[in-house]
Write a structure and sequence with these properties.
alpha/beta; Rossmann fold; single chain; about 400 residues; seven-stranded parallel sheet; 2 domains
Length: about 400
Amino acid sequence: MLQIIPSLISGGAERGTVDLAGALAAAGWTAYVASAGGPMEHQLARVGARHLKLPLASKNPLVMRRNAAALTEIIRRHKIDIVHARSRAPAWSACSAARATRRRFVTTFHNAYDIDLPLKHWYNSVMSRGERVIAISHFVGQYVAQTYGVGPDRLRIIPRGVDTGAFDPRRVNGDRVIALATSWRVPEDAAVVMLPGRLTRWKGGLDFIEAIARLGRRDLCCLLVGAEQRRGFRRELEHRIERRGLGGMFRIVEDCRDMPAAYVLADVVVSASTDPEGFGRVIIEAQAMGRPVVATDHGGARETILPGVTGWLAPPRDPAALAAAIGEALRLDAAERAAFARRAMGQIASGYTREAMCAKTIDVYEELLFPEPTAQLFPAPRERMPARRRLPSEGDLIEN
């Protein structure tokens, strides 16, 4: 099994790639990941998968052509059965290699990509060319079906999953939380409102700052947690904080290696994306940790938050509405917070776990490798498949 992704630096797609590689290895598959590399490479080795380094983050046509040739050789040398592409530029190389070697080809849409120009529509279309096309939410699935005509015979909805072993408030000891609070200079008597996510404009940091200003409370400590994606944007955030007179209330943290403890530290978690997110991993991580969540009302958030039950939804690009929702979350008493936590954690456990995501994806692979005789396009390479242990079955969660 070969997954293909641009790099292994950070992000939800990268996390899902590593999680799936580990599940495949644990189930007896031989798991490879091809990418340009990054800090998450060592995690692949730790879960028993192998990394193959190629310049797959490049959009240069000449580099993409060379990548296609290199992937063709890799597929043949390592006897790959399935090629799974998770991003557009490397998907073009992967599609070419899979066709040249007559291997099964799977793609994952991680978002509803912009198609404002005809060339962009064509460029994105490679993600619709898989024998199976995975969408990470119903929102993305609807986009794929409407924009590229992918029917239910090929389209599968597989939501992202959270590692409930790591993201479990009962497993986070106080020392970890105290260490973060000390490092980030969080006052003991402050209510903590956190927006996790890369420091980029569309994640809504500016709207978050404006919402806190409109809230008019001085007893808060507000955290923007995430790496800067575009140079200069952190400085813009800092200028806005100063201009609104909130300098003592905000902390910008670009490196957090203990997100479960960060969620425990937070009283409210915010996802303020200005444009729809395909899924929104922060939302399910925070809910798994039993934290009240406020998110913008579009994209995948509509599927993972039950308004008034597990969190709140506010219109995008509306700081006043965002402030009102944050205020409601902060007004919860202890009993109400406990009830929110139980409902949120139950929802994650029932449908948004790492195990469910991986099991459903492996079911898709087996669907292709071991098809019904009438649906078989060419002989499936059974002889190369190792004997393996099936993951705990959650096939009833497959969305056809």
